[in-house]
Amino acid sequence: MNIVEIITNIAYLVASVLFIYGIKYLGSPRTARTGNFISATGMFIAVVVTLLSKSIISYELIVIGIVIGSLIGTIMSVKVKMTSMPQMVGALNGFGGGASVLVAFSEYYRYIFDEKHQSLPVDINIAIGLSIIVGAVTFSGSFIAFGKLQELISGKVIKFPLQNAVNLILIVGVVALTVYTLFDVQNVWLYVVMIAVGLVLGVLVVLPIGGADMPVVISLLNSYSGIAAAMTGFVLQNVMLIIAGALVGASGIILTNIMCKGMNRSLMNVLLGGWDNTGGSDETGTSKRMDVKSVEFEEAAMIFDSASSVIIVPGYGMAVAQAQHAVRDLANILEKKGIQVRFAIHPVAGRMPGHMNVLLAEANVPYDKLFALEEINDDFSNTDVVLVIGANDVVNPAAKTNPQSPIFGMPVLNVEQAKTVIINKRSMATGYAGIENELFGYPNALMYFGDAKDALTKLTNELKNY
Amino acid sequence: MDSILMLIIIFVLAVFVGVELITKVPPTLHTPLMSGSNAISGITIVGALLSAGSDNFNLSNILGLIAIIFATINVVGGYLVTDRMLKMFKKDKGEK
């Protein structure tokens, strides 16, 4: 190792340490912004040191690439609405995966067609294969997820005949192909086919998955983008890429796990598509006629005015209606009246982990008023009013009471234990699981129909008159 | 020691570090955690730079260029949007 290489490697080590510190600081809202800055500094160091490397001869393409990429990245990050954050993260995952495929393939090409090094070592060849496959799955899968979240593609569960068999054949096939390349390294088409199969696999795996399962999919693809980066690290024999990729891979897997637990489902069950409706949703509970009571804003305002404690439960409906500011206004007026207001956030509310928290933060709701399921679930019983906004399955008591229900066993918020539950929804339509919510027929439950933004604004204006 | 073996050891240890760090992140920060860690996975940019900047101009340079664009979107977009989100997280001023 000459002196330049030693300095380069020390700089890469520093960058790796900064990534670790950055994630550590992301662990608390007070230090998170600093953490993100530390991590960005690590990235900056990594890029600058690489640019100084003697194997970089020409800078034209690099400058062009960085300028175009920075422009697109900046515009995306400035323009994106907070409600569209899941799509944004989905797209970013995709770009990361795509970059891994391209780098791995380009490295392969350099090994085979550059005069410098003719032979491709077996370990690097395997790493190239894995980098290409994982990267390609991440790339196409992320853009399908993006399409679903952006509603360019149906968010419904899409099933096609023999989908699991086809996926299995593709997975076995692509692994076999990777092994085969070890014996036919010079055949560039094998690698092109590998990319193609990876892309098809990404589409086929994500396409069947329904909209409300997107938190799991986005987390999983986040993990894949990290693993792809780590594999690229093996290709380049670069320790920093391996460390950074492993950190991201671990992060995605943990979030995936949390999301699956939040739905009481296994990852397999989510990936295979849709709720297990073997019992048939029609037999479970819908035979009983539900006695649903509904209220208008005048009556709802009266109920809120006489409460002393309120818990608000936001769901994806709040994001769809862009109602987070209306929610904040309502919370403000309630607090002005001396009413305690807290928010209960179910782990899978929204379309990605922490989606509701970001929306409420955007509307200036302090984060210490937001409580996770396990922190607040025992408090519903001594709460006067619970307001459910555009959430359904996550407040369905059937998960606790009805062993026949497809969502039985899923952790739910105990909203029915409050004195009064007001549920704001646009209609009586079922939630993602496609089942009736028996909560709506409970004696202490009141439906308040309407678009979340309109309904809450009316309610807030009415409360101002008290 | 074989270099591939050493790299695998580093990978496994880094996964453990990641697991330790991330289990401590509260649910309220899960979205910024995702976009922020996502930006880190844009580290592939290092490989992209090496591909695009190598001497004889051929396919690998073009692939490198596209890879730089993708990775830069990932890095710049990821860090900026994370910062935008984190700026919004505020504690209640009324309480200590």
Structure description:
The complex is a heterodimer of chains A (466) and B (96). Chain A has 466 residues and is an alpha/beta fold. Chain A has 2 domains: 80-271, no CATH class; 297-463, TPP-binding domain (Rossmann fold, 3-Layer(aba) Sandwich), CATH 3.40.50. Helix content of chain A is 57%, strand content 7%. Chain A has helices at 3-25, 32-51, 60-79, 85-113, 122-149, 163-181, 188-206, 214-236, 239-263, 267-271, 297-305, 316-320, 324-336, 355-362, 373-376, 398-401, 452-464, and strands at residues 309-314, 340-345, 370-372, 385-389, 420-425, 445-449. A 6-stranded parallel β-sheet of chain A has the order 3-2-1-4-5-6. The termini of chain A are far apart. In chain A, 52% of the residues are buried. Residues 276-287 of chain A have low confidence and may be disordered. With 96 residues, chain B is an all-alpha fold. Chain B is flat. Chain B has helices spanning 3-22, 30-41, 45-53, 59-88. Chain B has a domain at 33-88. In chain B, 64% of the residues are buried. Chains A and B meet through helix 1, helix 2, helix 3, helix 4 and helix 8 of A and helix 1, helix 2, helix 3 and helix 4 of B.
Keywords for this entry:
heterodimer; A: 466 residues; alpha/beta; Rossmann fold; 2 domains; six-stranded parallel β-sheet; B: 96 residues; mainly alpha; 74% helix; 0% strand
For the largest interface, the chains and their residue counts are: A-B, 113 and 85 residues
Distance between the termini of chain A: 77 Å
Low-confidence stretches of chain A: 276-287
Strand order of the largest sheet of chain A: 3-2-1-4-5-6
Beta strands of chain B, count: 0
For the sheet with most strands of chain B, the description reads: none
User: Percent of residues of chain B in helical segments?
Assistant: over 70%
Provide a compact summary of the structure.
Chain A is α/β, with parallel strands linked by helices and 466 residues long. Chain A has helices at 3-25, 32-51, 60-79, 85-113, 122-149, 163-181, 188-206, 214-236, 239-263, 267-271, 297-305, 316-320, 324-336, 355-362, 373-376, 398-401, 452-464, and strands at 309-314, 340-345, 370-372, 385-389, 420-425, 445-449.
